[in-house]
Amino acid sequence: MIDYHLHTPLCRHALGSPEEYLAAARQKGLREIGFADHYPLGLLGREPEAAVSMKPGELPGYIREIRALGAGEKEIAVKLGAEVDYLPGTEELLAELLAGDPFDFVIGSLHFMGDWDFTHPYHAHRYEEQPLEQIYSRYFELLWQACASGLFDIIGHIDGIKKFGHRLPDEAMEPYWRETARVLRANGLCFELNSSGKDAPAAEFYPGRRLLELCYREGVPVTLGSDAHGPEQVGRYFDEALALLREVGYRELAVFSQRRRSFIAMEESGR
Ligand code: ZN
Ligand code: FE
Ligand code: FE
Ligand code: ZN
Q1: pLDDT tens, residue by residue, 164-191
Q2: Alpha carbon distances (Å) from 59 to 10, 15, 41, 100, 172
Q3: How far, in Å, from the CA of 38 to the mean position of ligand 3?
């Protein structure tokens, strides 16, 4: 099994050293892990009041630390990644920045719509302040834009807009889900089954089953991540996640080295 979405305390809202995440992975019998801490928003000209990412000056140390951890580890492959915010207008800047970074993989995630951090509990009241239809349509437009940017290898928590349980009926969601699967496919992207949604008010993986089915039908590759913000969250709900992936039809998981994708069989990865 693999876990391709681990954070570190550099983002200021996660606990535990990278060594402790690795130890947790060993205990869970994982064979490969990927650190994907929050890429410095400061490099993209954004510094929210509450710090939610590493500081620009901390990126080189993060890279060194994860590489050193991997170099000293014999059993578990340790990949170096980042979770990068998609902020419209920063595409060229970000492309230049990422071209100089030695990441194995880059997860593109949405946490902001304009100045609203819609994934932050502190700002969840804003879901009440405009029609939900409007929020969803803005979210998915932004998501498809992120997909088309060509900046990312993996799209993170792809239906993260449901985090606090604000949902449209399935009939209203179907066109969004279909178009999302199509756009992923058209851009050669991979997405993650992110198990952290189970611990959010949404109480469901990102993405939910229907979008997962449509992605499988479109032939979109999937990887697996816990979005751990603490060592005890490494590999959370992975038995259930793998069972769901199998049910839907998936038999392999995407892994990355130097931003090139390959696959491992889920049988091999399971334990
Ligand atoms: Zn985070
Ligand atoms: Fe995220
Ligand atoms: Fe994350
Ligand atoms: Zn995340």
Answers
A1: 999 999 999 999 999 999 999 999 999 9
A2: 9, 18, 11, 12, 41
A3: 7
Q: Give the separation between CA 131 and CA 139, rounded to whole angstroms.
A: 13
Q: What are φ and ψ of residue 225, in 5° steps? A: -150, 150
Distance CA(171)–CA(100), nearest Å, equals 43
Residues 88-137: tens digit of each pLDDT: 999 999 999 999 999 999 999 999 999 999 999 989 999 999 999 999 99
- Residue whose entry in the numeric block shows the structure tokens 């130890």: 23
Q: How many angstroms separate the alpha carbon of residue 125 from the centre of ligand 4?
A: 20
Structure tokens at 116: 């609203």
Number of Cβ within a 10 Å radius of residue 99: 7
Q: Which two three-digit tokens encode residue 145?
A: 């834009």
CATH code of residue 35: 3.20.20.140
How many domains, in total, are found in the chain? Answer: 1
Residue 243, both tokens: 């069972």
Which residue segment(s) compose the domain that 174 sits in? 2-265
- Residue 160 CA to residue 167 CA, distance in Å, equals 11
Does the residue 34 lie in any domain?
A: yes
pTM higher than 0.90, yes or no? yes
Q: With b meaning 16 or more CB within 10 Å and e meaning fewer, what string describes 166-199? A: bbbeeeebeebbeebbbbbbebebbbbbbbbbbe
Centroid of ligand 3 to alpha carbon of 36 (angstroms): 7
Residue 270 falls inside a structural domain: no
d(CA 37, ligand 3 centre) in Å: 7
Cis bond upstream, residue 207 (ω within 30): yes
C-alpha torsion angle, residues 211, 3, 98, 66 (rounded to 10):
170
pLDDT digits (tens, 9 = 90+) for 45-62: 998 777 899 999 999 999
